[in-house]
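#random but structural
TW: two for the price of one
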Amino acid sequence: MRMKKILICDDDFGIVNMLELMLEDIDAEVISETDSSKIFDRLQEEQPDLFIVDLWMPVVTGDESIRYVRSQEKLKDTFVLCISASRNGYEVALEAGANVFLAKPFDMDEFLNVLQDALQTAP
């Protein structure tokens, strides 16, 4: 059985570093991208089981990248966790096709529970 892949896309290096630290104990390969203009290529290359994406980024926004995931046959089963500092991002994220939305700052236990559930249900 292959190791699960988690792709993180957030333009904030501090958030990416924090997420990487939180994911150290998870049995999965963690890949990060801070340049949203590269995210479509990275999604195709990596084909992650779980995609963690910030909603508001320059160039390619989180909802655009979520719509992209949902439009691609190879990626359509990817679990998408959208994170954002804006509370009104909930509707935007779910409308775009995210499985779960968490507002920053989020509870670490809640975040890890969502990840564990997503990885257990991933094909």
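TW: number two ↓
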Amino acid sequence: MEILAFRSYCLDKPGVTEDTPFDEDTLCFKVGGKIFAIVDITKFESVNLKCDPEQAIELREMYEAVSPGYHMNKKHWNTIVFNSDLPDSKLLQWVDHSYNLVYNSLTKRLKLEIASK
């Protein structure tokens, strides 16, 4: 997967914004002001995605490309290394899961604001 396709996929989701709060190379995708994906835009070797804790463990056991979140809460985040063995469709499924976890944690008011845009 290329960075532009990944970025476009994330930004097409309702209410998503992007910024670089940590440094100029670390791009964060947020919904309702909360991060659901983090990538290094210069290297674009991996992505950190939020994940249900039980599913996070399962994915780490099933896929070599998935490990505990680098510099993140390892219970709730996975780092996924981009490689040819992992289909883009699987990665995008995990992006959806991460987005949905964060979106569902938002207040009703924020969800209504996002839905009305």
